[in-house]
Amino acid sequence: MRFCTVFRAPQCRNRAPLLSRPRTSSRSCSQIQPRPERSSFGIAFDVDGVILRGRAPIGGSPRALRRLYEQSGTLKVPYLFLTNGGGIPESRRAVELSELLGVSILPSQVVQGHTPFKNLLNRYENELIVATGKGEPDAVMSEYGFKKVLSLDEYASYFKDIDPVSQYKNWTTNQALYGNGQSSELMPRYNALYERVKAAFVVSDPVDWGRDIQVLCDILTSGGLPGQENGRQPPLYFAADDLEYQAAFPSERLGMGAFRIALESVVIKIHHNPLEFVSFGKPNPFVFKNAELILRKLQPSHHDGHLINNVDPGSQHFETLYMIGDNPCVDVKGARQAGRPWFSILTRTGVFKGKDNHSEFPADLVVDTVEEAVDYILQREYVS
Q1: Most CB atoms closer than 10 Å: which of 43, 147, 176, 372?
Q2: Which element (helix H / strand E) includes 128?
């Protein structure tokens, strides 16, 4: 087990001091107070590169997570998954993670890059919007309550020849389902051929970059109706802005941030106007503040062994919130920007593989695996 030098060592407050060497069994606080009725710390786990690589658990993640539960199976430490990934509803991601990791995970414990899109419901609930990305981006937005949402696959299928190279694509998409350009025979939903798109959402990593860049350019530079005269750009929202992330392939893969750069470059080059957009996901401080509110609601009660579901978020207090991630530019940067009570832990199982700490965004602690991170946290917090 290898720990890196710690940078922001807090004073001893009801816990062991932060170590700059591998953990030992000694406890340095001269006086140990009784543990509070509710845990004074919480944990946020990144997923890709920390908990999973592809669909395979890594770094002892199943064992690490099991340590956060009582023997009865109830949660003793509040934790959630804070990931920029997505493409499926949080309810289904919770089921998927539960099966892969062997622990019971609630939908409320899953915060994906597109989760903050829920906050835009009042603005676009009954407006025509398009959503793109891998998985089921339209299903995600529909589950959030948006009434008139189309995937970019379906939206593009209603406009004949909008993708001039579609005939050369040998993979199966929804567009092939609509007759490969014979959209005039279809009855578009929501009057899509005549109604302007009021907002576009990049929910997850796009699959067909060429088609998506082309159609998004059409939407954004026409005021929301491809083929029409230029108009005011509809709002554009990205679930995250990762340039790279760790997937199953040994080296990093291009993320949503790379797609955003490509789209932005094309818009500026061709239409000579800057691309207006809003990005969510880590390292946005808003995401960390929102995660703190969710963790407060997940704090277990030591009186009855059940989760507190009707707690006033303002009434609870965390001494420390741990962000365990593999990407210094996303996980560590976000935790540092969010400030107290966030404490960043960097693992070497994903994007970061350095021997020492990251130079630009140093974490509070560097470990080899997520299991070592959890072991360190529980020792520091005196949790058996």
Answers
A1: 43
A2: strand 128-132
The predicted model gives 25-52 an average pLDDT of: 66
Q: How far apart are CA 29 and CA 6, in angstroms?
A: 18
pLDDT digits (tens, 9 = 90+) for 171-196: 654 444 444 444 445 677 888 999 99
365 vs 347: CA distance, rounded Å: 9
Neighbours of 28 (CB within 10 A): 11
Residue showing tokens 């835009």: 120
Confidence band (pLDDT; 50, 70, 90) for 257?
very high
Cis check: omega of the bond before 57, within 30 degrees of 0: no
pLDDT digits (tens, 9 = 90+) for 56-77: 999 999 999 999 998 888 899 9
Q: Would you call the peptide bond into 341 cis, given omega within 30 degrees of 0 as the criterion?
A: yes
CA 1 to chain centre: 28
The band of 205, judged by pLDDT with boundaries at 50, 70 and 90, is: very high
Predicted TM-score (pTM) of this structure: 0.83
SS3 call for 148: strand
Which residues have a Cβ under 8 Å from the Cβ of 370 and sit 6 or more positions away? 45, 50, 51, 58, 59, 60, 61, 64, 324, 347, 349
Instruction: Find, among 348, 313, 355, the residue nearest to 332 by Cα.
Output: 348
